[in-house]
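User: MFS-type drug efflux transporter P55, Paraburkholderia solisilvae:
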Amino acid sequence: MHVSVSSSRRSLILGTIMLATFMVSIESTIVATAMPRVVGQLGGFNYYSWVFSAFLLAQSATTPIYGKLSDMFGRKPVLVVGIVLFLAGSLLCGFGWSMTSLIVFRVLQGLGAGAIYPVAMTIIGDLYKLEERGRAQGMIAIVWAVSAVVGPLAGGVIVDNFAWAWIFWINLPLGVCAIIGFAILLREAVEHRQVKIDYAGALLFSIAIISLLVLLTETNATGGVLVGLAALFVVSGALFIFREKRAAAPIISLELWTRRVIVTSNAATLLAGMALIGLTTVLPIYVQGVLGRSPIVAGMTLTALVVGWPLAVMMSGRLFRTFGIHRTVRTGSVAFPVGAMVLLFLTPHSEPAVAAMGSFLMGFGMGLVSITGIVLVQESVEWSMRGSATAAIIFSRSLGSTLGAAALGAILNVGITHYGSGELATRLRDLLNHPTGLADLAHNPNVRMVLFHALNWSFWGVVAVAVLAVVSAWLIPVSRKDTGDVPVKHAAEAASGN
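Assistant: Predicted structure for MFS-type drug efflux transporter P55:
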């Protein structure tokens, strides 16, 4: 099984991949901006968070499964099926008549999104040599950065001037063009053989991951519900492992997850995802609530992150050739915790530019950790396992984001309880739950200082996780042949070390 494509078509295929990626990446930011208006029309505010959670749960749980299917049946059919599911969900979301129906259709969207990004990144690994891959994946990183900036603006324009359904229907022409592009440009030679799909393994894996993610994100659940979710995760996880050890063609290769290069790369990516979501969660609260600046200023501090990330990915190819892949990640990834440590020097009177500097350094370090992990994992396996390996590292990033949001949120709450007396802590939580609460903190200096000290605890949490991410990056195995003067020639050998 292999991909057959002339070099002249690669740029067109990359453009099609960027289009498909843009469709998924901009959807989340458009929906986030428009949802208050949607809830106002549909009602059911209690289900507000599930509009986002349903999508992310379906996407995260199916990502490794689609990676395996792309190894079994080829990249193109799996990717096209994912786009079709995503478009079907988008179309139906626009016709949603209640919050319940909207959540169901968002699940369908998520089932499609689970295929698009990992399989698209796998195709890049198939088409581009190691020394060229940084530029190609840098273009994908730019797509995510542009989506982060354009999405909120587009969502606001749509809900102010058109029916809210267009926040979903805007995907339809993009998806149709992507399907046509892949159908015409991407050609695969697939060996025709009988393949038995491990449906039981896929089902058990989905149940285990969804129960874990709900357990981590459902903060309002009762103790009995949480215990039930934990029990469901343990039982389904154990049954999944038991099944996969005995399945002739397991949907998730346990052997793949035991390889040192994959374990360490996934660990570094997971921890980096935890730190990064921590930054994006607490930094806007600090800028608005402690510094008293506008949401626009808070957004600008995070914009520095989405500048640093694609910049690092774009530079990675040249850095790999000059210094070697491992020297690059080991040295460059240090920017990640250094940027996090900048947060520790923030005060109630700091300039937002200081926060932006830390954000930029974290984005740059994360870019190097991310691209290096994907490259090493892809180079360490043969074509028939590349989809599974790529999906595994993308899944690790998603899981890290979920874990990070839960952990940093818990630290912030503990800090509020510790630094605020009962009355101050209650007052602060009431303000944080109010739409204009952060702006009102300027008139409550005592409550504002409680928030500052609690956020400082969260910043320490971000630093700790960022340091662990770099330690994991340093543990990625290195070949003795991976030297500065021959980094590309021996990169595959370095990546396959155990």
